[in-house]
């Protein structure tokens, strides 16, 4: 397929943001043979798949395709097959027709056969504590979603109206940029669907509206992960001919909201800064002074907190000053790599903790009630621990 035809098909099936990240859905990038044939770690073998399944127990990325296609491109279907948590496998970065073992993105060291406790060996700012954390660092994405669901329920019960869930999708020990953007977005989409299956009661599905960044992303979700779902799918922006230059068509949020809507979930609004401005509008016009709730799922809000000087980006500066302080981060994981790396972790209503993994165990180096800045964690807390 020529590049021009490929791009036209991508535009019909999904969003241009995915085309920019992946170079088209039909592209195939094979790993080197020595990586593809790498043996599994000692003691870790893949679980046998059910009869009739495909893939031979191979590890795959969140974006895996069946042999069906639309407009000459593979239609994304995601399976719920499992593999043992100890199995590592290679993390392939190709798109080939296969069914996938989903949500085992983390390494076998992270997903050991035994439960990994978090021991608080260091303390809060105002005192020492040797107690064991109530919420352990998750060993896999199944446990992570259960923790995020519980934390969100507790926050909403405490009348928190604007909440954030943030964690890496390319692996529990990954950092932003470890995975390809399109694959990370598809991983987030799948995890949002599974979170909603846990969090949203069946009778509440039609009063829960999920906002994706743009209209084409909604079409992609309906054709793949959210096929057959009763959840309402909507969008924040419409693509325009000048999208590559940062221009999108403004969508009036009051026109998108319906009277019976109770919960809004905004999916990964981080590709374009205008998306978060629309989220703030959604909160101001449809959530504030009502009984509705708004959940921001993997919005990478740390970018707004740290990356945009208010002098050059006055609208984002106002967002950081007036909107983000109202937000309760109910579940959060941010990894720091390097010789003195670690992880910033929080599960509502618990404190913020800086953890470090030593010999398969997570130890609490520091904890406090307020969220520390990433700069403080990277330059102060982790080096001094």
Automatic annotation (TrEMBL):
Residues 138-378 form the DUF1995 domain. Residues 36-45 have a biased composition (Low complexity). The lineage of its organism: Eukaryota, Viridiplantae, Streptophyta, Embryophyta, Tracheophyta. Residues 24-65 are annotated as: Disordered. It comes from Colocasia esculenta (Wild taro). This is DUF1995 domain-containing protein. It comes from the Eukaryota. InterPro entries: DUF1995, LPA3.
